[in-house]
Design goal:
Order of helices and strands of chain B: HHEHEHEHHEEEHHHHHHEHEEHHHEHHH
Family (chain B): Belongs to the bacterial solute-binding protein 1 family.
Number of strands of chain B: 10
CATH topology of the largest domain in chain A: MetI-like fold
Number of domains of chain A: 2
Low-confidence stretches of chain B: 1-50
Shape of chain A: flat
Number of domains of chain B: 2
CATH superfamily of the largest domain in chain B: Periplasmic binding protein-like II
InterPro entries (chain A): ABC_transporter_permease (IPR051393), MetI-like (IPR000515), MetI-like_sf (IPR035906)
Mean pLDDT of chain A: 86
Radius of gyration of chain A: 25 Å
Mean pLDDT of chain B: 85
Largest sheet of chain A: none
CATH class of the largest domain in chain A: Mainly Alpha
Shape of chain B: globular
Strand content of chain B: 5-15%
Largest sheet of chain B: 8 strands, mixed
Number of helices of chain A: 13
Oligomer: heterodimer
Protein name (chain B): Carbohydrate ABC transporter, N-acetylglucosamine/diacetylchitobiose-binding protein
Organism (chain B): Ruania alkalisoli
CATH topology of the largest domain in chain B: D-Maltodextrin-Binding Protein, domain 2
Number of helices of chain B: 19
Number of strands of chain A: 0
InterPro entries (chain B): Bact_solute-bd_prot1, Chitin_NgcE
Low-confidence stretches of chain A: 1-18
Distance between the termini of chain B: 42 Å
Helix content of chain A: 55-70%
CATH superfamily of the largest domain in chain A: MetI-like
């Protein structure tokens, strides 16, 4: 995705010259099918398309078909049952609970993560001294590196580490809290209490992702010409005003993309939830759709039913992406020239 | 005592192993109904390609020469080296042949495509949390009765070397679909050295247990503790106590998913006793957020609580995390009153680690490896290295290879005599994942006995009402 800097550069957005590798005219007329042209299309269009069809679209169609059968998963036999699986799904309290938990994750995790990431990114890029060159807070480079550390650790390791840190008896968190004299946290089960299990899980996921999205936003902000900020500052804008009126509108597309990426991750969240609370948490309060799907397929041997869950998960994800686009649009996304 | 132990199973696989061993017992009685109802036991064809060798006393299934046997073995609490031990014997007795032992912790996910594609392994240890539900593959499995009727390496018919009743849980109709290799004794485990030091005696009734809890409390110790993935060990304990108290009718009501089965007097009595222990603070708090191996180490290593209900795999599972001089011993689960219907020594014991031979594989090869595993030599090797008995009798010496836990297993089995029972409904219908959160909440004090009863009953009722789930009639 490109930064929406064209307006600021003073160029009408439409007249940007194409920079990508465009097959230039080779001797003679453009449309002539030369060997060169044909091989080019095969390699750059045909091959990816074939791979896409075989490994992406085909499994989608298969899953869609299996969701209409009662396939057990371990024998070739299956029976077509129509929409029965979906009807059962709608009435399955275990699945609706999981959908609810996933939706909570899909709403909270992107919002919290991106808010924090954005604040950090702004501090590191334009949060510094109010005079002289626009720069970040002191030690910005250090913070930038440090905050990326969590993202370097694989999700499963993050989950397992935090599970130990949150351990009621020997965990670091309760050790610190009781050390401060808060005796009510003696043996407090963060992941074992209905009220704290979900927030604690969300905290761990956010912890793992803030650094990466911060870096993404830093790159976007760095793409905004410094003159813009200087002009704003001459006009008397403070740092908060610059963040709200200049930075945010100009990196709007980055935020939207980030929102969709992390939202899809949060709707899945399998790795984190499986590491933190493999049995689904107290009263199944952290059981997510993907965990329930896995359980249905491999523990209960109902692959058809599980495929139906997969289809529902895909739909929920699509709805989520559509919502993000819509919200961005309704709040003025296209007026700012953000849509590319 | 633990210094002698040789192998050190990976902690994480062990962790899986625990729950799973618990779960993997004679799984799918579910299937019984398929086998008998749906028909076609007779259809079991004898595998695909049988280029086969000659059948003889040394080669009862006619395994071809120069065969590579493909075995996928659950790599859990017991590891896979005991199968490799049998594999070496096979390589010696069948020159030119060998066994490829592939360890796996996710049997279902790894083997699913192979079953669908018609090229499953020759022998599978279908165990662990990721095991395949028996109802899904029952009609694709060989009848293993001919393995049991074959002579072992020492020349005795295998059937005559086994403990009584160990084949029943995996027999569907007439078909022996799996051979459960390891004998598991369920009970409550404790450190006999710690008990001697303090002059305590292991409790035989729940009243005595509560008294012990009070005594422990005086020393800032807890009576019980649990880990979040293993909270249902206390459900197993409760069911055992209730079956002892009320006899077979309690067991049958649960097994057959009867309405109000969780409200039976015996079960309610045990639940009430447990609730008393919870309310009195005899359970170590925080269990619902503690990883179960960590919780078990609080018992075996730091000795923060006294009693732990589990299967006999517990010794092997916690090998690395048991303190010096722990002297692990087991008792049969506490009964409600001093004169329970089944007798105070009645014992929950059954065989686990189900080995199956898929019909599409090289069945002769799979059966031959299984036959070798059931020989006295292999079974003795298993008992000595894993400190657990197999279903083959008389492989554990009187000193239990220096393991007090193993000796106490033998004692429990002989004390129980005929009154050995088991129950399968939790595994048959895959209830454990749903029951876990309920038990976690009950044990940490946030659910009453009434909540516990109604929520467990709701799971039972849902399964009973669901026509797509095959029910198994247990008698």
């Amino acid at each position: 995705m490109t930064l929406s800097g064209s307006v600021i550069d003073g160029q009408p957005p439409n007249q940007t010259t194409p920079t990508g590798p465009v097959p230039g005219p080779r001797r003679g007329r453009r449309r002539k099918w030369t060997l060169d042209r044909i091989t080019f299309f095969i390699v750059f269009l045909g091959l990816p398309l074939a791979l896409f069809l075989i490994f992406v679209i085909n499994p989608f169609i298969q899953a869609g078909y299996y969701s209409l059968t009662n396939w057990s998963g371990f024998s070739p036999e299956q029976e077509f049952v129509g929409l029965q699986n979906f009807i059962t799904l709608a009435q399955d309290p275990r699945f609706t609970n999981a959908v609810g938990n996933s939706v909570v994750l899909g709403l909270v995790v992107p919002f919290v993560t991106l808010t924090i990431a954005l604040i950090f990114a702004i501090l590191i890029t334009i949060g510094g001294a109010g005079r002289g060159q626009i720069r970040g807070v002191k030690g910005a480079g250090f913070y930038r590196v440090v905050s990326l550390f969590p993202y370097v650790i694989p999700g499963i390791a993050i989950g397992l580490i935090w599970r130990l840190i949150l351990d009621p008896s020997s965990g670091l968190v309760n050790g610190v809290l009781t050390g401060l004299g808060l005796d009510q946290f003696e043996s407090f089960a963060w992941l074992g209490n209905v009220t704290t299990a979900m927030p604690a899980s969300i905290f761990v996921i956010v912890w793992g992702f803030v650094g990466f999205y911060m870096l993404l936003f830093i790159a976007a902000i760095k793409g905004i010409p410094a003159e813009t900020y200087e002009a704003a500052r001459l006009d008397g804008a403070g740092r908060a005003r610059m963040s709200w009126s200049i930075t945010l509108p100009l990196i709007r597309d980055n935020v939207q993309t980030a929102y969709i990426y992390i939202g899809i991750m949060a709707l899945d969240a399998y790795v984190y939830m499986q590491a933190l609370n493999p049995q689904g948490g107290p009263d199944s309060s952290t059981l997510v759709m993907s965990q329930q799907l896995f359980r249905t397929a491999f523990t209960e041997s109902k692959f058809g039913y599980a495929s139906a869950m997969g289809v529902v998960i895909a739909l929920v994800t699509l709805v989520f992406a559509a919502l993000v686009f819509t919200v961005n649009r309704l709040t003025g996304g296209k007026d700012d020239g953000g849509a590319s | 005592m633990n210094a002698k132990l040789t192998t050190t199973p990976d902690r994480r696989t062990v962790l899986r192993g625990g729950i799973i061993t618990a779960a993997s017992l004679p799984l799918g009685v579910t299937l019984a109904s398929c086998a008998t109802g749906g028909g076609g036991d007779e259809e079991t064809t004898d595998g695909g390609e049988e280029p086969g060798g000659e059948t003889s006393a040394d080669n009862p299934f006619g395994m071809a020469e120069n065969t590579t046997v493909d075995a996928v073995i659950f790599d859990g609490g017991y590891g896979v080296d005991y199968v490799e031990f049998a594999a070496d014997i096979l390589a010696e007795t069948h020159e030119g042949s060998s066994v490829e032992v592939s360890p796996s912790t996710q049997i279902a996910t790894e083997l699913q495509p192979r079953f669908v594609g018609g090229n499953p392994p020759d022998l599978v240890d279908n165990s662990g949390a990721g095991s395949i539900g028996f109802n899904a593959i029952l009609d694709q499995l060989e009848d293993l009765n001919d393995v049991i009727d074959a002579p072992n390496l020492e020349g005795t018919t295998i059937r005559d070397t086994l403990y009584d009743g160990v084949l029943a849980p995996s027999t569907y109709g007439d078909k022996l679909a799996a051979i459960n290799y390891v004998l598991t004794v369920y009970g409550v485990w404790y450190s006999s050295s710690l008990f001697e030091e303090n002059g305590w005696t292991p409790p035989t009734t729940w009243d005595e247990a509560l008294e012990l809890g009070a005594a422990a409390k005086e020393q800032d110790l807890y009576l019980f503790g649990w880990g979040t993935e293993a909270a249902t060990y206390y459900q197993t304990l409760a069911i055992e106590s209730a079956i002892k108290e009320g006899g077979d009718e309690v067991r049958l009501a649960l097994e057959n998913l009867e309405a109000d089965c969780w409200s039976q007097d015996a079960i309610q009595g045990v639940f009430a006793a447990m609730k008393e222990a919870v309310d009195a603070g005899y359970f170590k708090p925080g269990g619902s957020g503690t990883q179960f191996t960590a919780a078990q180490a609080q018992w075996s290593n730091t000795q923060e609580f006294l009693l732990y209900p589990s299967g006999s795999w517990i010794e092997n599972e916690m090998r690395d995390q048991t303190t010096e001089g722990f002297e692990m011993k087991g008792i049969s689960s506490m009964s409600l009153t001093s004169s329970p219907a089944l007798g105070a020594d009645a014992l929950h014991s059954t065989a686990g680690e189900p080995f199956i031979v898929p019909s599409d594989g090289n069945t002769a090869a799979g059966k031959e490896l299984l036959r070798i595993m059931l020989s006295k030599e292999s079974a003795e090797n298993f008992a000595a290295t894993k400190l657990a008995p197999t279903i083959v009798r008389d492989t554990v010496p009187a000193d239990g290879f220096g393991s007090t836990a193993l000796v106490s297993q033998t004692d429990l089995l002989s004390a129980a005599g005929e009154s050995i029972f088991t129950f399968n409904f939790v595994n048959t219908y895959g209830m454990n994942p749903e029951q876990l959160p309920i038990w976690n909440s009950f044990l940490d004090g946030s659910k009453s006995v009434a909540d516990l009863t109604s929520e467990l009953q709701a799971i039972t009722d849902r399964i009973r009402e669901d026509d797509t789930i095959d029910k198994v009639e247990v008698s």
